[in-house]
Design goal:
This protein has 357 residues and is α/β, with parallel strands linked by helices. The chain has helices at residues 3-24, 45-48, 51-61, 72-75, 91-100, 121-129, 145-153, 181-194, 202-218, 226-236, 249-257, 262-268, 289-297, 301-311, 345-356, and strands at 34-40, 63-69, 85-87, 106-120, 133-136, 139-142, 243-247, 269-274, 279-286, 314-315. It is 45% helix and 17% strand. The protein is globular.
Length: 357
C-alpha cells in the first residue's frame, strides 16, 4: 500500500470524524422573526430605516419594525389597537399615556436630544448684534432668550433688527404644539420664559394662555412633524423660515444623508442652543410582549452608537458617552448643561387644550 493512499485514507477518516462530531454539537437555532407595529415621531424614521439598524434588529432580535409617523401627543391619544409600541419624543407624552392607562407601563428613555433653534448666517449675525446670541468655543448660544421673546411680543419686524431682506415679524416657527413634540416642548419653554424664567405651574399657564394663544394663532399653518419642518426649512431657505425650533439631531442626520451638499448646508445653517433649553427624551412605550423585545433591542450598544454617529441622538442610557468629534459637524457641544424642566404634565395638558380652543 503506497504512502499517498495511506494519507488519503487518514484524511478521509478525519473528515468523516469531523462530520460526525459536528452532528452532535449544539447549534444555535435561527432567531424567530416577528414584525412589530407602532407609531414613532418623524425625527426617528431615519434611524429605523438605517440598513445597519434593520440588520441588527433582524439578526440579533428577530425583529422587523413596521412604523407609522405620528406626532407625540397624537400617539398617546389615538386608538392603539393592533400596535406593539409607541415611541413619542418626550416624558410629557409618556405621562399623558400613563394617566389614561392606569397600571404598570413598560417604558424606557433610550435617546435624548435638546431643543435647539436653527437659523441662517445673516439672521444669526443680526441676533449677535442684538446681544441675543453669543459664540463660545465654536458653539452658538442664545444667551438672552427673554430679549428674543420681547422682540416677538413687541411685534418687531426682521427689518427692525437689520434684516430688510426678510418680510414679516420676528418669530420662532415650530411644529404644531397640539400635535407634535418639538412644538409642544418649545411652547413649554416659552411658558417658562414668560413666567419670568420659572417653571410654569397650572395657574401660571392659565394666566399666560391668552399671550401664548395669540402668538400661536399669528403663525398660521404649522407643520405636524419635526422632520417635515426641518426639510422645509432647508429647502425653502431663509426667506420662508428665518428661525425655527427643532431637535439637535436633525442637522446631524440631514447633513449625513446629503453628502453631496453637505459643505454647502453646513456653511449656511447655524444651530443655536437656547440658555436655558429643555431636553427632549425619547421614551419607547411597550404595549405588548413583542413591543418589549423592541424596547430591549433599542438599548443594544451598537444601535446606540449608530444612533449618535449617524443620526445625532444622544444616548439615554447610563454609561454611554457621546463624542461630538465623531460627527464632523461644527458647533455641537460635548454636553448641554443649561437645561430647565418642562411644566408638569397637568400644566402642559392645559396649555395644549387652551391652544385647541
Amino acid at each position: 500500500m503506497n504512502k499517498r493512499f495511506l494519507v488519503g485514507l487518514v484524511l478521509l477518516a478525519a473528515a468523516a470524524g469531523m462530520i460526525a462530531l459536528w452532528q452532535f454539537l449544539p447549534h444555535p437555532q435561527p432567531v424567530q422573526q416577528i414584525t412589530v407595529h407602532g407609531y414613532v415621531g418623524s425625527e426617528k424614521v431615519g434611524l429605523l430605516r438605517n440598513p445597519r439598524v434593520i440588520k441588527i434588529l433582524r439578526q440579533r432580535y428577530g425583529l422587523t419594525v413596521d412604523h407609522t409617523s405620528m406626532g407625540s401627543i397624537e400617539q398617546v391619544r389615538t386608538n392603539t389597537a393592533g400596535k406593539d409600541f409607541l415611541w413619542p419624543s418626550n416624558e410629557i407624552a409618556l405621562e399623558i399615556y400613563k394617566e389614561s392607562h392606569p397600571g404598570k407601563v413598560k417604558a424606557e428613555t433610550v435617546f435624548n436630544s435638546p431643543i435647539v433653534l436653527y437659523s441662517w448666517e445673516p439672521v444669526t449675525e443680526a441676533l449677535i448684534q442684538q446681544g441675543i446670541v453669543e459664540k463660545a468655543e465654536g458653539t452658538y448660544y442664545v444667551v438672552d432668550m427673554p430679549k428674543l421673546i420681547d422682540l416677538i411680543r413687541s411685534g418687531k419686524e426682521w427689518k427692525d433688527i437689520g434684516l430688510p431682506q426678510l418680510y414679516g415679524k420676528v418669530s420662532v416657527i415650530s411644529t404644531d404644539p397640539t400635535k407634535s413634540n418639538s412644538g409642544n416642548m418649545f411652547y413649554g419653554l416659552l411658558a417658562n420664559l414668560l413666567n419670568n424664567g420659572q417653571v410654569a405651574d397650572d395657574q401660571a399657564v392659565e394666566r399666560l394662555l391668552p399671550t401664548i394663544r395669540a402668538y400661536y394663532e399669528s403663525l398660521g399653518y404649522l407643520e405636524q412633524g419635526s422632520g417635515d419642518l426641518f426639510k422645509r426649512f432647508v429647502r425653502t431657505g431663509m426667506g420662508d423660515k428665518p428661525l425655527i425650533a427643532g431637535y439637535e439631531n436633525q442637522l446631524v442626520e440631514f447633513s449625513l444623508e446629503n453628502e453631496a451638499n453637505r459643505e454647502q448646508i453646513l456653511a449656511q445653517i447655524r444651530i443655536l442652543y437656547p440658555r436655558p433649553t429643555v431636553w427632549s427624551s425619547h421614551p419607547l412605550i411597550a404595549l405588548t410582549p413583542n413591543g418589549e423585545v423592541l424596547l430591549k433591542a433599542m438599548q443594544d450598544t451598537d444601535i446606540q452608537r449608530i444612533a449618535w454617529e449617524q443620526h445625532g441622538f444622544r444616548s439615554g442610557l447610563v454609561g454611554i458617552q457621546n463624542d461630538p468629534k465623531i460627527l464632523n459637524v461644527v458647533g455641537i457641544p460635548a454636553t448641554v448643561t443649561s437645561v430647565m424642566p418642562l411644566p408638569r404634565p397637568s400644566a402642559m395638558e392645559r396649555l395644549i387644550q387652551g391652544l385647541l380652543q
